[in-house]
Every structure is written in structure tokens, then in C-alpha cells.
Amino acid sequence: xxxxxxxxxxxxxxxxxxxxxxxxxxxxxxxxxxxxxLGYLYIDSGAMYxxxxxxxxxxxxxxxxxxxxxxxxxNIHISFDVNPHHLHSEIYLNGENVEYIIRDIxxxxxxxxxxxxxxxxxxxxxxxxxxxxxKGIVMDGRDIGTTVFxxxxxxxxxxxxxxxxxxxxxxxxxxxxxxxTIDEVKANxxxxxxxxxxxxxxxxxxxxxxxxxxxxxxxxxxxxxxxxNLVKKQMQPA
Length: 238
Ligand code: DC
Prior knowledge:
Blueprint: H1 2-11, E1 16-21, H2 27-38, E2 41-44, H3 45-58, H4 66-74, E3 78-82, E4 89-93, E5 96-97, H5 105-115, H6 118-131, E6 137-141, H7 144-148, E7 154-159, H8 162-176, H9 182-198, E8 211-214, H10 220-235
Parallel strand pairs: 1-6, 1-7, 2-6, 7-8
Antiparallel strand pairs: 3-4, 4-5
């Protein structure tokens, strides 16, 4: 079965897979594993908004001022490169690897506000569309199936219980910062979810043709199987 599927994936024209959902649903874990299995590129679109936020914070950009935002964006170049040690793609801001620093709570506190700015979204969405020009990509985020790739062949909308999401994010952040509390993480997630779902431009919502994946009680292996089945169905001749 798997050999047949691997064969199909190699032979089939490349497709686009989008994975959207609230914070800490496990989107990036699934997207990365799926991309690896398919031999596709994995792009973490949230990392792009985080890198832009990092630039704004470091350079004291007043992001309430449109002119300042426009000027700052001219100086931002974002790219992804595969780390040869673990073969994960990592994000670079103007040539600097910022994969780890953008996960800091200081960036997390501001990123939803920055991601709600029209000019920032236009900038990021244009770059994301370009990355998908040749297909063969798995991209996760909030508006990937609705705005960035509305014609994607496979769209997944991930959900998970809030308590599970908070626990997962806490475990991830505690590793880097043992001073962080579960209440801080919970408040940050709630605030970001609210802003991401209620902003004017491209708020988080399920695309009409997206398939819901609730991974509250699924193992990583089970959720990968679920996603691979969707891709397989898409690739099988009608
Ligand atoms: O997935 P993440 O937590 O790393 O995303 C960081 C922030 O960026 C999140 O608060 C929402 C925003 N985001 C967005 O608005 N659109 C995307 N496609 C991806 C992320």
C-alpha cells in the first residue's frame, strides 16, 4: 500500500496542500511530516509573520504608522533553507537564521497585531504565492486555504481542544524558557486566537472545501495517516 502510494506521489503531478487552524493545533508538526513523506517543500507561514515582527521590534518600527511599515518592509528579505543536521526547513531574516528566536514570548506577544496589518499581509501573501508557483508544497497558517492558495488540491483545517493546545505550547516554550507559566501561555494563545479570527483582512476561517482534522486524541502517526489518505484520494485516478 505504502510503496504504491510513494510511487503515485512521485509520478503524480505535484499538488499544493494547505493546513490552517488556531494556534498550537499541531499544524507545523503535521505539515513538516507530510512534506517529508511526499518529498515536498514545507513552508511555515506563521514564521514569516514572526520574522517580520522580530524585525519591527529590533528596529523600533512603529507599526501603527503605515509609512514606517512600508519603509521597513522594503528592508526585509525572508527565505527558507534546509538545516543539514535534521533536514528541517528554517527561516532566515536578511540572511540570519531566526528560526529559534522568533518563538520567544516577546515576539509571540506582538505577532498577531503585526499580522493584522494590511501592508504586512500583502507582503507575506505575495511571497507565499511565489513559493507555491511550482506546486509541490505543504504550507500551514491561518489563511492558506482561503487566500494564499484558494485552488489548492488538498485543504486541511485542524482543530484541537483548548486545554490540549495550551499544554502543547507550554511544553514547547518551557524548554526554552523555564520561567514561563502556564497562565502566560494560556493568555497569549487566547489573545492571538481572538485577533487572528476577528481581524478585518483574511481572518482565520475554514475554507468551504477544507476537511476538518480534530487531533485532540490522535497520535502524530494517526494524523499523518489521515492526511496521507486525503492526498492519496486526490492522486488516485478518478
Ligand atoms: O502559526 P504561528 O503561531 O507561528 O503564527 C504566528 C502568528 O502569525 C499568529 O498569531 C497568526 C499569524 N498568522 C497569520 O495571520 N496568517 C498566517 N498564514 C500564519 C500566521
